């Protein structure tokens, strides 16, 4: 739950699901900027067939939306690691699992890269490949929440910006799509609310042996303190971007390569480097 006076509030009705609500009257006190948003909104709603399912405007001043949150309530002694993405894709939110698929139903590069680097590999048998996409998504979601996977860590997956946009390939995709929809000033106000949500999540999910791995520039920048290294893509692509979390300086903050690059061998080697680096770090604690 978040304070009712905030520009962005959330509830989690069930594990894996996050419902958000934007107060547009607070977000746009200026009429011209509100009119600009309404024009953009009328275009945005026609971009993707999932948008009418995931967004609601029962009140003109309230923009409701569905998002995702994969934070296990269980614990088995493994140190927690939170993977933070930029924002969710509409088709994945509708499917109930992040990175539900890419292309024409192919396994998303994100899951392949996590498995190859040893960060997270599922215990699926050979029959998994023959299942429908709906069944695969349901099984993967439950495995995440039940911690039914091979990993040295207790994995949580969260988005920095909770508002979904269409998948890559659209001019409205990703965080750049949010900027196009809301405008810079409004998106900065949204980011401030998202930072408070993330700071609380980090405090609740991660102890002194945990870590945060981000896969997107805004996520890394929003979670680091001013005195931590600034985001540099070149460092992220080499697995050498390491800072600390603003909510707790004892928690390492890693900047991994963006998910769009994870089909690339160099990017996967960088993610492997981040995984190994943190394993070495917790051994010294």
Task: Give an account of the 3D structure.
This protein has helices at 24-27, 31-44, 51-54, 90-95, 109-117, 133-146, 174-182, 184-205, 217-223, 233-238, 265-283; strands spanning 8-14, 16-23, 55-56, 62-69, 80-85, 121-122, 149-150, 154-159, 211-214, 241-245, 248-255. By secondary structure, it is α/β, with parallel strands linked by helices. It folds into 2 domains: 8-68; 71-283, 3-Layer(aba) Sandwich (Uracil-DNA Glycosylase, subunit E). The strands form 3 sheets. Strands 8-5-9-11-10 form a 5-stranded mixed beta sheet. Strands 1-2-4-3 form a 4-stranded antiparallel beta sheet. Helix 5 crosses helix 11 (265-283). The chain is globular. The two termini are 33 Å apart. The mean pLDDT is 92.
The CATH H-level homologous superfamily of the largest domain:
Uracil-DNA glycosylase-like domain
Poorly predicted regions are none
The number of helical elements comes to 11
Distance between the termini: 33 Å
**Structural class by sheet pairing and helices:** alpha/beta
CATH hierarchy, class of the largest domain: Alpha Beta
CA-atom Rg in angstroms? 18 Å
Strand order of the largest sheet: 8-5-9-11-10
Helix-residue proportion: 40-55%
Number of domains: 2
Main sheet makeup: 5 strands, mixed
What best-fitting shape do the alpha-carbon axes yield? Answer: globular
Averaged pLDDT, please?
92
CATH architecture classification of the largest domain = 3-Layer(aba) Sandwich
Strand content: 15-25%
Topology, number of strands: 11
